[in-house]
Amino acid sequence: MIAFLSTGIGRWLAGALVAVLAFIGVYVVADHRGYQRAATAYTAEIAQMKADAATARANEIERQNTANNAAKAAEAARIAQMQADADALQHQIEELQREAHQDPDAGKPALGASSVQRINKIR
Q1: Closest Cα partner for 100 from 88, 111, 89?
Q2: Where do the record's region annotations for Disordered lie (predicted)?
Q3: Residues 6+ apart with CB under 8 A from 96
């Protein structure tokens, strides 16, 4: 084998083999470094995307809580108004019933003027 390498063709083949191996080595090192750079860049990009998603999630939860609290406050105000209206109506009904019991014409078959006025108050 050493005799073959001492010939012109052997030296040429050995030189070509060394050149091919050097080219492969350079390619592997460059490819590995490029892959590592890309992996680092995409790792940072993914971390940024996760942070953005967490921020967006927190903002959306805060927005929903604000909207829910506003809706609850509006609902409480409507309920309070409805209760006040119901209390006023109940008071009016009690007043009209008291007036109806005190009406001297309560037992008559026809409605008197005061009875008509009480009915009109309900409308």
Answers
A1: 111
A2: 95-123
A3: 118, 121, 122
Amino acid identity of residue 80, one-letter, is A
Task: Give the burial string for 85-118 (b: 16+ CB within 10 Å, else e).
Answer: eeeeeeeeeeeeeeeeeeeeeeeeeeeeeebeeb
Token pair for residue 84?
């006040």
8-102 and 113-122 helices, crossing angle to 10°: 170
**Positive or negative: CA dihedral 67, 70, 76, 82:** negative
The predicted structure's pLDDT at residue 1: 66
Q: What 8-state DSSP symbol labels residue 24?
A: H
Structure token pair of residue 106: 């309560």
How many residues make up the chain in this entry?
123
Residue 117 one-letter amino acid: Q
Q: What is the dihedral of CA 15, 17, 22, 25, to 10 degrees?
A: -170
Report pLDDT for 77. Answer: 98
Mean pLDDT of 80-106: 88
